[in-house]
Amino acid sequence: MPATPSSASPSVPPFDPGDPLGIDDLLTDEDRAVRGTVRQWAADRVLPQIAQWYEDGELPGIRELARELGSIGALGMSLTGYGCAGASAVQYGLACLELEAADSGIRSLVSVQGSLAMYAIWRFGSEEQKQRWLPGMAAGEIIGCFGLTEPDHGSDPAGMRTYAKKDGGDWVLNGRKMWITNGSVAGVAVVWARTDDGIRGFAVPTDTPGFSAPEIRHKWSLRASVTSELVMDDVRLPADAVLPEVTGLRGPLSCLSHARYGIVWGSMGAARSSFEAALDYAKHREQFGRPIGGFQLTQAKLADMAVELHKGILLAHHLGLRMDAGRLRPEQVSFGKLNNVREAIEICRTARTILGANGISLEYPVMRHATNLESVLTYEGTVEMHQLVLGKALTGLDAFR
């Protein structure tokens, strides 16, 4: 029998508390370079100010931030052509993780721009639409938003009331959309509406008469993010505003699947930030004459948090490899979104208990991540919706209706 390597074998690296499963061994040099670039940008531009932005409930300088994100290739980064970086799905996921380790609102800005608005135009738009919008969006010079959710229709988009009617050679759009990230600062809105021929997508310039996007205030989650309502009152659009390559819910749902993939990674960024804060605190906070990290109950919490965190990252990496191979199914994305966001919230809550009263302070990232993840848990499909997606896939029985 071959000899079992000892713990002192030079082929076995030392245990790394930051990467206990050795997941970095699965990454390429290019993967690490992408991750390093995004991590450094977030450390320089977001982390020094994010607590104040969150407390103030605003994201100042969002247009400048978008241009900076464009300059490092983070906008539409997994798309090809039109100024997009053409990065792998794994690299896009690593970027989402690093952005959400800074704040969920920053990752949401990037996800909505690239995985929803840009992706919809890239996949379903005409060549003229792609040339008009995508280069500016990839550079961060044009911010996009994605209008699907309505005040009365969230989990059931088939019930949407927004309607587009043909009027000669034009379309006339009427309706409301709700909880729209980037809406108040967007230059183009991808809006989904009912038509006589089924659900269609429209690339709507936000300076079109009849279009407005009042910002939603008084949020207790995603406070460092622009969230808006979209209001369309007789918005007249030319015939070429419609996305020509898709009809029906397949269009917006495929965009959502792409965005959910980014959340699978991003939620682990929020979890990692909270875990690292708790680990550092546990090693330095003293009670009863020694660091609290030396007590069994605290170590049990840290061990359980580390297990779920790195399982989640491993799951995200696996899904990224499947996406890069063209083999990722929507049910698998639901698997990842359901597990990782749910576990990320639990990691944040456990981290808060380790920090005690300090856990509610914005001097630490934990409570900010926890409240942000309450929104992440809901958007791009609630827990219940992803449970039912998986339930249908497992049983073959549809519980939605």
TrEMBL record:
Q: Which Pfam families match?
A: Acyl-CoA_dh_1, Acyl-CoA_dh_M, Acyl-CoA_dh_N
- Region named Disordered: 1-20
Low complexity compositional bias, start-end: 1-10
- Report domain Acyl-CoA dehydrogenase/oxidase C-terminal positions: 248-394
Domain Acyl-CoA dehydrogenase/oxidase N-terminal, chain residue ranges per copy:
28-141
For activity, the cofactor(s) needed are: FAD
Domain (Acyl-CoA oxidase/dehydrogenase middle): give its ranges.
145-235
Q: Which biological processes are named by the entry's GO terms?
A: fatty acid beta-oxidation using acyl-CoA dehydrogenase; fatty-acyl-CoA biosynthetic process
Q: Which SUPFAM superfamilies match?
A: Acyl-CoA dehydrogenase C-terminal domain-like (SSF47203), Acyl-CoA dehydrogenase NM domain-like (SSF56645)
Query: Which keywords fit this entry according to its UniProt record?
Result: FAD, Flavoprotein, Oxidoreductase, Transit peptide
**Care to name a GO molecular-function term for this sequence?**
flavin adenine dinucleotide binding
- Report the PANTHER family cross-referenced here: GLUTARYL-COA DEHYDROGENASE, MITOCHONDRIAL (PTHR42807)
Family to which the UniProt record says this protein belongs: Belongs to the acyl-CoA dehydrogenase family.
What is the protein name for this chain?
Acyl-CoA dehydrogenase
The species this protein belongs to is Streptomyces chattanoogensis
